[in-house]
Design brief:
Blueprint lengths: L10 H13 L5 H12 L4 H14 L5 H6 L4
Length: 73
C-alpha cells in the first residue's frame, strides 16, 4: 500500500508544528489531543513536526479528511 502522506521534508509538517494543528478540522479526539499537546510543548519545532507526522503515519487510514487539508495549511 502506497502512502498518501507528504514526505517528512514537506513544509506542511513544520506548519502543523507551529500552530497549524489548531486550524486542522478534525472530529477525531486523538488528533485534537495531539494538537493541544503540541501547542503546549516546549520541544523544538523539528521534534513536534516529527511527532505529528508519526501520528499521521500510524493513523493514516482514519485521517483521509485531515490529510486532504494538509495542502491548505
Amino acid at each position: 500500500m502506497t502512502s498518501s502522506l507528504p514526505p517528512a521534508s514537506a513544509p506542511c509538517w513544520q506548519s502543523l508544528a507551529t500552530g497549524g494543528m489548531q486550524r486542522l478540522q478534525t472530529p477525531l479526539l486523538a488528533a485534537q489531543l495531539l494538537a493541544k499537546r503540541v501547542e503546549r510543548s516546549n520541544a523544538p519545532i523539528a521534534t513536534k513536526a516529527a511527532e505529528i507526522r508519526s501520528f499521521f503515519v500510524k493513523y493514516e487510514r482514519l485521517l483521509a479528511d485531515e490529510i486532504a487539508q494538509l495542502g491548505r495549511l
